[in-house]
Amino acid sequence: MNGKRIAGLLLVIYKYILIIMTVLMFIIVGTNVFSRYILNSSLGWADELARFIFIWISFLGAVLAYQANEHIGLNYVVEKLPSGRIKELVLLSADLLVLIVIFFLVKYGWIVANSATNVSPALYIPMKTVYMIVPVSAALMLLINVNKIISRLRALVVKNSLPADERGVE
């Protein structure tokens, strides 16, 4: 099995984890709404667990969006640049700046998560577990970012690795 197939398989598993977490959150919230308004008895732990799952979904979804280049960017400005090489240099510069930000997220996210000593009030989950999503998702983004940087460097070094439309080939 080559690297691209393994990466594709991991991406599918990652998406299924996000789907399962979303369905679980929907079930928890739905059950709590039913319990509160039909049975007149709220589940004390449901709001807290749904919030924690939502936090994890948000950060894991951000990793997926980063991998798919779905984050907000200045694509309009980059598309107006005259050549493929200049575009690649601008995108490489942006990726290097993002690398610095992600590095700080990993570093300080880890410090903050490991310094948490409290537990959640309803479920008694260590808050360290909840906060750990910041360095975990940032580390995943770091791997994606390094891969993007390597791809951009290859595109700059080897002209044929640029997309066909940017090489003047139709």
Task: Explain what the structure shows.
With 170 residues, the protein is an all-alpha fold. It has one domain (3-166). It is built from six helices and no strands. α1 packs antiparallel against α2 and α2 runs parallel beside α6 (133-157). It is elongated and about 65 Å long. The mean pLDDT is 89.
Q: Can I get a quick summary?
A:
About 75% of the residues lie in helices and about 0% in strands. The protein is mainly alpha-helical.
Mean pLDDT: 89
Number of domains: 1
Instruction: Find the structural class using helix and strand composition.
Output: mainly alpha
Counted beta strands: 0
Q: What is the helix content?
A: over 70%
How far apart lie the N and C ends?
32 Å
Q: What value does the Rg take, in angstroms? A: 21 Å
Helix count equals 6
Helix and strand run: HHHHHH
Task: Lay out the secondary structure.
Elements: H1 3-37, H2 46-67, H3 75-79, H4 84-115, H5 127-131, H6 133-157
Helix pairs in contact: 1-2, 2-6, 4-6
